[in-house]
Amino acid sequence: MTSSSPLLQVRDLRVDIGERTVLHSVSLDVPAGSLVVLMGANGSGKSTLGMALAGHPRYNVVHGQALLDGKDLIGLEAHERARAGLFLSFQSPPDIPGVKNNLFIRTAMNAVRESRGEAPLDAFDFLKSAKSGAKDLGLPETMLGRPVNEGFSGGERKRNELLQLAMLKPRLALLDEIDSGLDVDGVRAVVALIERLRAQGTSFIVVSHYLQMIELLKPDTVLRLDQGCIAETGDLELARSIARTGFARNAATAEA
């Protein structure tokens, strides 16, 4: 990939779930260090895009291409996509009973470090870094020793995913309504972390309807997804227009 090529290139992506086509034809570019906000009504395919790019087995890519740094994502297994630098936050992060949070994050970190040719972190260095990251995000240190998300509140689950994001430092992060369930301090922590990682070269696709956070994020591009296709491309003014008029009215205006 040349230096002028986008980090992520998606072309004419069609995704089916079972017998139903959810994404009909999606094309987009995400340059290194940039931030794209993805908006759309419920059921428009926002989460499907993230799941398909991350390699969830229920989401069948039947047509199109997705390249990350020139590498064909569709031909990789889910864990290979993560090693290549792709990170996905879940809209509803699941429990992983029996797996301690610190072990889960450290194992993921060392797998990524190995793929980069870096030495693994030992338990002491990891825990020191994880405790510092948890403090920055307002996540109690005790959460590190508990099973992943088990008994966590909605906000704690989202902060825990932010901790994973901070520790893994991916090339591309897909954040699916990361602000959901967070209080004001949590939203500020999201914005601060994204700003820090963007400065280090991480690209973001952020799914959100929360205009205040979108304004704080200062996205490079805002996309409106409608019925499995990119219906509009714009900047922050597009997000503000959607917030004022709603998706249905905005769609009618775009078609006029």
Automatic annotation (TrEMBL):
Keyword field contains rRNA processing: no
InterPro entries documented for this protein: AAA+_ATPase, ABC_transporter-like_ATP-bd, ABC_transporter-like_CS, FeS-cluster_ATPase_SufC, P-loop_NTPase
Listed SMART domains: AAA
UniProt keyword annotations, A-Z: ATP-binding, Cell membrane, Membrane, Nucleotide-binding
Highest taxon, organism lineage: Bacteria
CDD domains: ABC_FeS_Assembly (cd03217)
SUPFAM superfamilies named among the record's database cross-references: P-loop containing nucleoside triphosphate hydrolases
PANTHER family with a match to the protein in the record: ABC TRANSPORTER I FAMILY MEMBER 6, CHLOROPLASTIC
Family: Belongs to the ABC transporter superfamily. Ycf16 family.
The protein's name in its UniProt record: Fe-S cluster assembly ATPase SufC
Gene this chain is encoded by: sufC
